[in-house]
Amino acid sequence: MTLSTIDPTVALVVIDLQHLIVARYDEHGSAAAVAKAAELADAFRERGLPVALVRAVGQAPGRTEQGAARAAAAAAATSASGTGADPAAALLPEAMEIVPELDGTGIRVTKRTWGAFHETDLHEQLQRAGVTQIVLAGIATTKGVESTARAAHEHGYHVTFATDAMTDDDLAAHGHSIDVVFPGLGETGTTAEVIALLPAAPTE
């Protein structure tokens, strides 16, 4: 861990902690990641620091092997239901909402690709708030988190990764991102280490 400092103009950016996605990663430690991300969100809000909640509602249109596999599985489920409709469709509006542990005030971003900057107003909202550094948390480490980190780095933000507030369904890839990729994009640390470096919360 090499976390050195947290700017006073920092924002928390939480990636894709939605009901359906958290449930999908249940066997991969999503509950622990949500709990740590919630700790961060509470700490940021207590200090009046921006919290950006990013929600995925689609995916990039390009063909992928994983996309083809998902489409085949959905077609099979539709056929098995005997109704001619996707049995998951009725779940989508609620299932794609942010989990209650994270829900609250802050910046809202809806994305249709892995990264939170592409064709969204995240950069503009962060700039209006005077943000120079972001702390990243969420799911999945190698997809939404890493894609957002790469774009943040290219936009000139200092990037910090709260490594215990994220997870992935491929633990080897998760470890590779944390140990190899992330040090080239920013700094890594635990939730506790991030909170310890935040400015003091105002006293009443």
TrEMBL record:
<dbReference type="GO" id="GO:0016787">
    <property type="term" value="F:hydrolase activity"/>
</dbReference>
<dbReference type="InterPro" id="IPR000868">
    <property type="entry name" value="Isochorismatase-like_dom"/>
</dbReference>
<dbReference type="InterPro" id="IPR050272">
    <property type="entry name" value="Isochorismatase-like_hydrls"/>
</dbReference>
<feature type="domain" description="Isochorismatase-like">
    <location>
        <begin position="11"/>
        <end position="193"/>
    </location>
</feature>
<dbReference type="InterPro" id="IPR036380">
    <property type="entry name" value="Isochorismatase-like_sf"/>
</dbReference>
<keyword id="KW-0378">Hydrolase</keyword>
<protein>
    <recommendedName>
        <fullName>Isochorismatase-like domain-containing protein</fullName>
    </recommendedName>
</protein>
<dbReference type="Pfam" id="PF00857">
    <property type="entry name" value="Isochorismatase"/>
</dbReference>
